[in-house]
Amino acid sequence: MDLSLEQFAPLVGTNFTIHTQAGLIDLQLSEAEELPRRNRPEQFRTPLSLIFTGPTDAALLQDTYLVEHPALGQHQWFIVPVLSDNPDSNLYYQILFG
Question: Does position 65 have pLDDT exceeding 80, yes or no?
Fold first, then answer.
């Protein structure tokens, strides 16, 4: 599956289900953006960053998880906890596609 901003932009604000050893956790896609290509050859996709918010009672560690969404199906993606400038009580995570 060749992933692009066009696939994710309409999904901002929707939940993705993350399969963990402790059970299912929903993360909400809060941001999807393309990153600079930086002389990347045309045969490679444009880098893409996805930022998710999640509950504070179920923190995810940096790892590969089964991620599910009705519009995209199931995929194994590497999720990284990240810091945010937002002072709310959510936890933030990022998935990068390079």
Answer: yes
